[in-house]
Design a protein that fits this description.
By secondary structure, this protein is of the alpha/beta class. The protein has one domain: Alpha/Beta hydrolase fold, catalytic domain (Rossmann fold), CATH 3.40.50. Helices cover 33% and strands 22% of the residues. Helix 2 packs across helix 11 and helix 3 packs across helix 4.
Length: 327
Protein backbone atom coordinates (compact mmCIF):
# COMPACT_ATOMS: atom_id res chain seq x y z
CA UNK A 1 0.00 0.00 0.00
CA UNK A 2 1.33 3.43 -0.90
CA UNK A 3 1.88 5.96 1.86
CA UNK A 4 -0.64 8.65 2.63
CA UNK A 5 0.02 12.08 1.20
CA UNK A 6 0.63 14.72 3.84
CA UNK A 7 -2.76 16.26 3.07
CA UNK A 8 -4.40 12.94 3.99
CA UNK A 9 -2.37 12.32 7.13
CA UNK A 10 -2.53 15.80 8.63
CA UNK A 11 -5.92 17.28 9.52
CA UNK A 12 -7.07 20.08 7.27
CA UNK A 13 -9.50 22.93 7.84
CA UNK A 14 -11.61 24.90 5.37
CA UNK A 15 -11.98 28.63 5.91
CA UNK A 16 -14.80 30.59 4.36
CA UNK A 17 -14.21 34.16 3.26
CA UNK A 18 -17.04 35.67 1.29
CA UNK A 19 -17.92 33.28 -1.52
CA UNK A 20 -14.60 31.46 -1.37
CA UNK A 21 -13.54 28.43 0.66
CA UNK A 22 -9.85 27.80 1.35
CA UNK A 23 -8.38 24.55 2.76
CA UNK A 24 -5.18 24.26 4.76
CA UNK A 25 -3.62 21.81 7.22
CA UNK A 26 -4.37 22.65 10.84
CA UNK A 27 -0.67 22.75 11.73
CA UNK A 28 -0.51 26.00 9.71
CA UNK A 29 -1.80 29.06 11.56
CA UNK A 30 -5.08 30.27 10.00
CA UNK A 31 -4.70 33.52 8.11
CA UNK A 32 -8.28 34.75 8.16
CA UNK A 33 -11.91 33.69 8.26
CA UNK A 34 -13.82 31.19 10.33
CA UNK A 35 -13.19 27.43 9.99
CA UNK A 36 -16.07 25.57 8.38
CA UNK A 37 -14.76 22.00 8.06
CA UNK A 38 -12.04 19.68 9.33
CA UNK A 39 -10.70 16.83 7.17
CA UNK A 40 -8.43 14.20 8.66
CA UNK A 41 -7.33 10.62 8.31
CA UNK A 42 -9.73 7.80 9.18
CA UNK A 43 -8.29 4.29 9.00
CA UNK A 44 -10.08 1.04 9.79
CA UNK A 45 -9.85 -2.64 8.91
CA UNK A 46 -12.10 -4.79 6.76
CA UNK A 47 -11.58 -8.55 6.53
CA UNK A 48 -7.89 -8.27 7.35
CA UNK A 49 -7.10 -5.29 5.10
CA UNK A 50 -6.36 -1.74 6.18
CA UNK A 51 -8.79 0.74 4.64
CA UNK A 52 -7.69 4.33 4.03
CA UNK A 53 -10.29 7.04 4.43
CA UNK A 54 -10.71 10.73 5.08
CA UNK A 55 -13.30 11.98 7.56
CA UNK A 56 -14.71 15.38 6.61
CA UNK A 57 -16.57 16.95 9.54
CA UNK A 58 -17.98 20.27 10.68
CA UNK A 59 -16.01 22.30 13.21
CA UNK A 60 -18.97 22.15 15.61
CA UNK A 61 -21.06 19.18 16.68
CA UNK A 62 -22.02 16.87 13.84
CA UNK A 63 -25.65 15.89 13.30
CA UNK A 64 -24.74 12.35 12.23
CA UNK A 65 -21.97 10.20 10.80
CA UNK A 66 -22.28 9.42 7.09
CA UNK A 67 -20.54 6.60 5.22
CA UNK A 68 -20.19 7.09 1.46
CA UNK A 69 -19.31 4.81 -1.43
CA UNK A 70 -18.70 5.92 -5.01
CA UNK A 71 -18.78 4.57 -8.57
CA UNK A 72 -16.94 1.63 -10.13
CA UNK A 73 -13.12 1.83 -9.63
CA UNK A 74 -13.41 5.21 -7.90
CA UNK A 75 -11.36 6.50 -4.97
CA UNK A 76 -12.03 8.84 -2.08
CA UNK A 77 -10.77 11.96 -3.85
CA UNK A 78 -13.46 11.65 -6.54
CA UNK A 79 -17.27 11.52 -6.24
CA UNK A 80 -17.52 10.12 -2.70
CA UNK A 81 -15.11 12.78 -1.45
CA UNK A 82 -17.01 15.56 -3.20
CA UNK A 83 -20.25 14.58 -1.47
CA UNK A 84 -18.49 13.98 1.86
CA UNK A 85 -17.10 17.52 1.81
CA UNK A 86 -20.47 18.96 0.79
CA UNK A 87 -22.24 17.14 3.62
CA UNK A 88 -19.57 18.18 6.13
CA UNK A 89 -20.26 21.80 5.18
CA UNK A 90 -23.89 21.05 6.03
CA UNK A 91 -23.19 19.61 9.46
CA UNK A 92 -22.43 15.91 8.95
CA UNK A 93 -19.26 13.95 9.76
CA UNK A 94 -18.79 12.22 6.41
CA UNK A 95 -16.38 9.43 5.51
CA UNK A 96 -15.02 8.84 2.02
CA UNK A 97 -12.70 5.86 1.75
CA UNK A 98 -10.80 3.77 -0.78
CA UNK A 99 -12.46 0.35 -0.91
CA UNK A 100 -10.29 -2.74 -0.67
CA UNK A 101 -7.92 -3.17 -3.64
CA UNK A 102 -8.24 0.49 -4.66
CA UNK A 103 -6.23 3.61 -3.99
CA UNK A 104 -4.36 3.66 -0.69
CA UNK A 105 -6.24 0.71 0.82
CA UNK A 106 -4.81 -2.79 1.03
CA UNK A 107 -6.18 -5.83 -0.76
CA UNK A 108 -5.34 -8.09 -3.70
CA UNK A 109 -5.68 -8.32 -6.58
CA UNK A 110 -5.51 -4.63 -7.24
CA UNK A 111 -8.41 -2.92 -9.04
CA UNK A 112 -10.76 -5.79 -8.18
CA UNK A 113 -14.35 -4.54 -8.40
CA UNK A 114 -16.31 -6.84 -6.09
CA UNK A 115 -19.72 -5.51 -4.98
CA UNK A 116 -19.96 -7.93 -2.05
CA UNK A 117 -16.52 -6.91 -0.78
CA UNK A 118 -17.58 -3.27 -0.98
CA UNK A 119 -20.67 -4.10 1.07
CA UNK A 120 -18.35 -5.66 3.68
CA UNK A 121 -16.16 -2.54 3.65
CA UNK A 122 -19.20 -0.32 4.21
CA UNK A 123 -20.29 -2.41 7.18
CA UNK A 124 -16.75 -2.31 8.58
CA UNK A 125 -16.81 1.49 8.29
CA UNK A 126 -20.08 1.61 10.23
CA UNK A 127 -18.46 -0.47 12.96
CA UNK A 128 -15.45 1.84 13.01
CA UNK A 129 -17.73 4.83 13.60
CA UNK A 130 -18.69 3.32 16.95
CA UNK A 131 -15.04 2.95 17.97
CA UNK A 132 -13.79 6.41 17.00
CA UNK A 133 -14.21 9.37 19.35
CA UNK A 134 -15.04 11.70 16.43
CA UNK A 135 -18.13 9.68 15.46
CA UNK A 136 -19.00 7.53 18.47
CA UNK A 137 -22.64 7.92 19.51
CA UNK A 138 -23.76 9.65 16.33
CA UNK A 139 -26.63 8.29 14.24
CA UNK A 140 -25.28 6.65 11.08
CA UNK A 141 -26.47 7.56 7.59
CA UNK A 142 -25.40 6.22 4.19
CA UNK A 143 -24.87 7.70 0.72
CA UNK A 144 -24.07 5.86 -2.52
CA UNK A 145 -23.22 7.44 -5.86
CA UNK A 146 -23.69 5.70 -9.24
CA UNK A 147 -22.85 1.99 -8.83
CA UNK A 148 -22.26 2.88 -5.20
CA UNK A 149 -26.00 3.49 -4.93
CA UNK A 150 -26.60 -0.18 -5.68
CA UNK A 151 -23.75 -1.31 -3.45
CA UNK A 152 -24.99 0.84 -0.60
CA UNK A 153 -28.55 -0.43 -1.05
CA UNK A 154 -27.28 -3.97 -0.49
CA UNK A 155 -25.33 -2.85 2.58
CA UNK A 156 -28.30 -0.98 4.06
CA UNK A 157 -30.50 -4.03 3.52
CA UNK A 158 -28.10 -6.03 5.72
CA UNK A 159 -26.93 -3.40 8.23
CA UNK A 160 -29.31 -2.46 11.06
CA UNK A 161 -27.02 0.29 12.40
CA UNK A 162 -27.81 2.61 9.47
CA UNK A 163 -30.71 4.99 10.13
CA UNK A 164 -31.31 6.45 6.65
CA UNK A 165 -30.02 6.05 3.09
CA UNK A 166 -29.63 8.35 0.09
CA UNK A 167 -28.66 7.27 -3.43
CA UNK A 168 -27.40 9.79 -5.99
CA UNK A 169 -27.65 8.91 -9.70
CA UNK A 170 -27.65 5.30 -8.62
CA UNK A 171 -27.07 2.44 -11.01
CA UNK A 172 -29.33 -0.37 -9.82
CA UNK A 173 -28.07 -3.43 -11.64
CA UNK A 174 -30.31 -6.40 -12.24
CA UNK A 175 -29.24 -9.97 -12.86
CA UNK A 176 -31.79 -12.04 -14.78
CA UNK A 177 -31.45 -15.42 -16.48
CA UNK A 178 -31.50 -13.57 -19.80
CA UNK A 179 -28.79 -11.07 -18.83
CA UNK A 180 -26.63 -13.82 -17.38
CA UNK A 181 -26.94 -15.82 -20.59
CA UNK A 182 -25.91 -12.82 -22.70
CA UNK A 183 -22.94 -12.16 -20.42
CA UNK A 184 -21.84 -15.80 -20.20
CA UNK A 185 -18.65 -15.30 -22.28
CA UNK A 186 -17.60 -12.37 -20.08
CA UNK A 187 -18.25 -14.40 -16.94
CA UNK A 188 -16.26 -17.34 -18.27
CA UNK A 189 -13.33 -15.06 -19.14
CA UNK A 190 -13.52 -13.56 -15.65
CA UNK A 191 -13.52 -16.94 -13.96
CA UNK A 192 -10.53 -18.02 -16.03
CA UNK A 193 -8.73 -14.83 -15.00
CA UNK A 194 -9.48 -15.54 -11.36
CA UNK A 195 -8.19 -19.10 -11.62
CA UNK A 196 -4.98 -17.80 -13.16
CA UNK A 197 -4.60 -15.22 -10.38
CA UNK A 198 -5.10 -17.85 -7.69
CA UNK A 199 -2.56 -20.15 -9.35
CA UNK A 200 0.10 -17.59 -10.29
CA UNK A 201 -0.64 -14.36 -8.41
CA UNK A 202 -0.85 -12.50 -11.75
CA UNK A 203 -4.12 -10.67 -12.33
CA UNK A 204 -5.32 -9.98 -15.86
CA UNK A 205 -5.89 -6.24 -16.24
CA UNK A 206 -7.63 -4.09 -18.80
CA UNK A 207 -8.10 -0.30 -18.73
CA UNK A 208 -11.02 0.95 -16.68
CA UNK A 209 -11.80 3.46 -19.44
CA UNK A 210 -10.53 4.25 -22.94
CA UNK A 211 -11.22 7.00 -25.48
CA UNK A 212 -12.82 4.60 -27.94
CA UNK A 213 -14.32 2.09 -25.53
CA UNK A 214 -13.29 -1.41 -26.55
CA UNK A 215 -12.00 -3.95 -24.06
CA UNK A 216 -12.34 -1.77 -20.96
CA UNK A 217 -14.13 -1.96 -17.63
CA UNK A 218 -16.46 0.98 -18.37
CA UNK A 219 -17.07 1.38 -22.12
CA UNK A 220 -18.98 4.67 -21.84
CA UNK A 221 -17.40 7.71 -23.51
CA UNK A 222 -18.73 9.82 -20.64
CA UNK A 223 -16.79 7.67 -18.17
CA UNK A 224 -13.57 8.20 -20.16
CA UNK A 225 -14.13 11.95 -20.18
CA UNK A 226 -13.99 11.84 -16.37
CA UNK A 227 -11.59 9.05 -15.38
CA UNK A 228 -9.40 9.23 -18.47
CA UNK A 229 -8.72 12.97 -18.39
CA UNK A 230 -7.45 15.49 -15.82
CA UNK A 231 -11.09 16.19 -14.96
CA UNK A 232 -11.25 13.11 -12.73
CA UNK A 233 -7.90 11.31 -12.97
CA UNK A 234 -6.59 12.29 -9.53
CA UNK A 235 -3.13 11.00 -8.48
CA UNK A 236 -4.67 8.28 -6.28
CA UNK A 237 -6.67 6.85 -9.20
CA UNK A 238 -5.42 3.98 -11.39
CA UNK A 239 -6.99 3.46 -14.82
CA UNK A 240 -7.16 -0.31 -14.58
CA UNK A 241 -9.76 -2.99 -14.03
CA UNK A 242 -9.19 -6.59 -12.95
CA UNK A 243 -10.93 -8.83 -15.49
CA UNK A 244 -12.02 -11.27 -12.77
CA UNK A 245 -14.25 -8.49 -11.41
CA UNK A 246 -16.94 -9.42 -13.93
CA UNK A 247 -17.49 -12.77 -12.24
CA UNK A 248 -18.85 -10.66 -9.34
CA UNK A 249 -20.30 -7.51 -10.94
CA UNK A 250 -22.44 -9.23 -13.58
CA UNK A 251 -24.36 -11.47 -11.11
CA UNK A 252 -24.79 -8.62 -8.61
CA UNK A 253 -28.45 -7.62 -8.32
CA UNK A 254 -29.13 -4.26 -6.67
CA UNK A 255 -32.80 -4.11 -7.64
CA UNK A 256 -33.64 -6.97 -5.30
CA UNK A 257 -32.18 -5.08 -2.32
CA UNK A 258 -34.99 -2.51 -2.45
CA UNK A 259 -37.61 -4.75 -0.87
CA UNK A 260 -35.23 -5.61 1.99
CA UNK A 261 -34.42 -2.03 3.00
CA UNK A 262 -36.02 -1.12 6.32
CA UNK A 263 -34.97 2.52 6.72
CA UNK A 264 -36.12 5.81 5.15
CA UNK A 265 -34.63 6.11 1.66
CA UNK A 266 -34.05 9.05 -0.67
CA UNK A 267 -33.42 8.52 -4.38
CA UNK A 268 -31.95 11.41 -6.39
CA UNK A 269 -31.85 10.83 -10.13
CA UNK A 270 -32.13 12.46 -13.54
CA UNK A 271 -33.73 11.51 -16.81
CA UNK A 272 -30.27 11.98 -18.36
CA UNK A 273 -28.45 9.84 -15.80
CA UNK A 274 -27.82 6.11 -16.20
CA UNK A 275 -30.93 3.92 -16.51
CA UNK A 276 -33.76 6.06 -15.11
CA UNK A 277 -36.05 3.09 -15.75
CA UNK A 278 -34.03 0.99 -13.31
CA UNK A 279 -34.16 3.83 -10.78
CA UNK A 280 -37.95 3.84 -11.02
CA UNK A 281 -38.07 0.08 -10.57
CA UNK A 282 -35.82 0.38 -7.52
CA UNK A 283 -38.09 3.07 -6.07
CA UNK A 284 -41.16 0.92 -6.74
CA UNK A 285 -39.55 -1.91 -4.79
CA UNK A 286 -39.10 0.16 -1.62
CA UNK A 287 -41.66 -0.82 0.98
CA UNK A 288 -40.92 1.74 3.73
CA UNK A 289 -41.24 5.54 3.62
CA UNK A 290 -39.12 6.96 0.86
CA UNK A 291 -38.67 10.09 -1.20
CA UNK A 292 -37.48 10.74 -4.72
CA UNK A 293 -35.99 13.87 -6.27
CA UNK A 294 -35.64 14.16 -10.04
CA UNK A 295 -33.20 16.87 -11.03
CA UNK A 296 -31.71 18.17 -14.27
CA UNK A 297 -28.28 16.96 -15.35
CA UNK A 298 -26.30 16.84 -18.57
CA UNK A 299 -25.69 13.13 -18.07
CA UNK A 300 -24.38 10.79 -15.39
CA UNK A 301 -20.88 12.04 -14.74
CA UNK A 302 -21.74 15.66 -13.88
CA UNK A 303 -23.23 14.23 -10.66
CA UNK A 304 -19.59 13.44 -9.75
CA UNK A 305 -18.04 16.88 -9.99
CA UNK A 306 -20.45 19.66 -10.97
CA UNK A 307 -20.59 22.01 -7.95
CA UNK A 308 -24.15 23.33 -8.46
CA UNK A 309 -25.53 19.83 -9.05
CA UNK A 310 -23.65 18.42 -6.04
CA UNK A 311 -24.94 21.36 -4.00
CA UNK A 312 -28.55 20.65 -4.96
CA UNK A 313 -28.14 16.96 -4.11
CA UNK A 314 -26.31 17.69 -0.83
CA UNK A 315 -28.98 20.16 0.28
CA UNK A 316 -31.68 17.57 -0.40
CA UNK A 317 -29.75 14.85 1.43
CA UNK A 318 -28.99 17.10 4.42
CA UNK A 319 -32.66 17.99 4.85
CA UNK A 320 -33.67 14.35 4.52
CA UNK A 321 -31.09 13.12 7.02
CA UNK A 322 -31.94 15.90 9.49
CA UNK A 323 -35.55 14.76 9.49
CA UNK A 324 -34.68 11.11 10.04
CA UNK A 325 -31.63 11.14 12.32
CA UNK A 326 -33.70 10.82 15.50
CA UNK A 327 -35.96 8.02 14.23
Amino acid sequence: MSAFNLADIMPAVSYKFGAFVFRQAVHVAPLFGEPTMISDRFVFRSHGSQIAGVLHRPVGTAQAAVVLIGPVTSVKEQASGAYARALAERGFASLAFDPRTFGESEGEPRQFENPLAKVEDIRAAVGAFGEDSRTRGLPVMAVGVCAGGGYMAAAVAEEDRIAAFAAVAGYYSEATPESMAVQRPAIERARAAERKWRETGAAEMIPAVGPDGGDVGMPLREAYEFYGTPRGAVPNYVNAYAVQSRAYTIPFDAISAASRIRVPTLVIHSENALSPSLARRFIAGLSLPHEESWVRSVGQIDFYDDPPLIGIAADTIARFFSRHRAL
